[in-house]
Amino acid sequence: MEWPDALDRLAYVRDHGIDQFIEMWKRSKALERNDDLLWGDELEYSILKIDDQKAQISLRGPEIRDALAEKEAAHAYRTEGCAWHPEYGRWMVEGTPSRPYGGYAADLCRVERNMRLRRRRLLTQLKEDEICPTLVTFPGFGVGDFVADCALELKGPVANSASVPDAVIHPHPRFATLTKNIRARRGGENVKATPPRYIDVNTPSDAPAIIEGLDAMAYGMGACCVQVTFQARDSTEARYCYDQLAALAPVMLALTAASPCWRGTLAATDARWDIISASVDDRTPAEDGRGASSPNDQLAGSGVRPLPRSRYSSISRYAFECDGPAGQVRRFCDVDAPMDEEAYDKLKNAGVDEALSRHVAHLFVRDPLVLFEGLVEEVDDSTATDHFDNLQSTNWNTVRLKPPTGLGVTATSSSTEGEPGWRTEFRPMEVQLTDFENAAFSVFTVLVTRVILAFDLSLYVPLSRVDANMRRAHRMGAATQEKFYFRRQLAPNEASESQKFKNCCGGEDDDVFEEMTCREIIDGKGDYFPGLAPLAYAYLDHVGCDGEELRKLSSYIELVRKKASGEAVTGASWIRSFVTSHPDYNQDSIVSDKISRDLAVAAHEVGLGSKPAPELTGGEVVRPITTSGAWDTRLSADKIPTKEERRALLARYARRGPFEGASEPQE
Ligand code: ADP
Ligand code: MG
Ligand code: MG
Ligand code: MG
Description:
A hairpin with a 2-residue loop joins strand 8 and strand 9. By secondary structure, the chain is α+β, with helices and mostly antiparallel strands. It has helices spanning 3-31, 61-74, 105-108, 110-124, 173-186, 217-221, 235-256, 273-279, 285-288, 341-349, 354-363, 386-392, 435-454, 463-474, 478-481, 509-512, 518-523, 532-542, 547-565, 571-580, 593-608, 614-617, 643-654, and strands spanning 39-46, 48-50, 55-57, 82-85, 92-97, 130-131, 226-231, 261-262, 265-266, 312-313, 396-397, 399-402, 423-426, 483-487, 513-517. The relative contact order is 0.14. Helix 4 packs antiparallel against helix 13 (435-454). The strands form five sheets. It has a six-stranded antiparallel beta sheet. Residues 42, 227, 425 line the site of one magnesium ion (MG). Residues 42, 227, 425 line the site of one magnesium ion.
């Protein structure tokens, strides 16, 4: 629905979204499922087309996704498979494991194998002149004629961008509508991201301080990340993990930072987050304070309620309800978190606890952005959660609390079997060039959640400090140079020893947290802060992990340690030095077409293991990935169609001895 048509129905969706959440909450309470750990990652890939001189984005993403989905369906009998999802960019695809991983150490060892299988399978769908690197951004995006096989029609009706044609947006109507309506809700103005320019010795002194022209949602939503979702036992555990991971998010953003170039220019930042945040910012001038706008009763908060953040942001509230002395977790919620009062009252009256009511009412200060005709009043609030999901899926925070699905039919547990329960999604990390790194960070995240639960730890710091950490995480070299506010007192104190999740706070702020480098956070500090890596090892010991599994998991923990110490460089440092040491680089901040092209090719080769990059992987060698072994070879009994074919085949092998040319064994 176009924005003018949607306006009338926004209130309906907001209102019924809350009803749907309440229905879901009541059922989930009644079920008490005590779910197993299931989890999965998501990786995003860019499809680029190359020649000797330049690389361009290839708009074959949807076509490739469909072809992959079809092949996966034919391989569904295999345990290890992949699932392919559409992404905002028409040049992107997203891959996940076909089934979530389970809660065993062996599952942690499946991750890299599955990621490698994804890359291998994706490779089979590329044309000769295409590549699929896991780069956060292609540096040439938005520069000149950067879209392959497509007329450069600028200022299109959807994004109205002066550099990016509408054709780069995935053709599903959801994505264009999202783009259009964000712009409409802002008051017709284009979105605008403003990464600071990196000033090099030859950068002209009158060059703008920012990189200009990032005027389309695609600049942000086209940035690729790695996300991890895992299932908790119940809502309490999911909410507790949500909070801990929100506090950890900036540290993991810094360690995985891999986006130092935007629109053909080196930036003075390493990470993507703020750029996406600006690129999907739908706030009206009155909401974000850039000017005045007149109230419109159809919009959430009449479109004039001050909103300190974009809908793509770090969190504004912790979600865990601590039933200890009043104010325990709440006192760490020290940033402005506006909420929709009506939604809040409704939630409270329905018996939803304070913290969750506030969490949901905060999500509902936004408007739904994409409505489909026939799917508004028609949705049954007692069985569906579409309207809740609408708001939830466009509140893009560093963490997301995903409620159970499939509670629609009846409130008996049998109807929800196989349906996901309460999950927490960790969203800050930038995609890494190699699957070894992507697996390491995904596995490390899962281990940290296990550590937190097993040792009953708390990472709470005030959210104002988490915000400060997010700003620091963007800075160049933050992984090794910045300090982050981090909880120094992780373990339960005497008073809370007997009960789980009672270690939310306690102590004065000065005692509870302090500034630490990533290295201290990962490796430990003094005799009071053990460090996340030693805790992960202790946990693996506790659960009895050993042998080959322990060796593999250690290699992941060690990589994270090396990223934090600088022994392995971040993707951002690697890309930055690739650019600055390229013979065509003029020390003027400009990343030319040729440099972008060479970088993209190098990134692709590093991902495939055909170009070594031990500085990125901390010395780990990436075993080469080729198309070989991507798909199963069926032992067909169908008759070879023609006599000629049969003869030719036989003739070819009749003269040969034992088979030569068998390829390397696959994993
Ligand atoms: P979204 O894009 O909404 O975050 P995706 O479906 O792309 O969701 O990815 C979700 C991830 O969660 C996938 O890796 C998937 O394997 C994983 N997953 C699926 N079911 C469960 C579950 N019950 N618990 C935890 N993770 C799950
Ligand atoms: Mg996804
Ligand atoms: Mg995605
Ligand atoms: Mg996701």
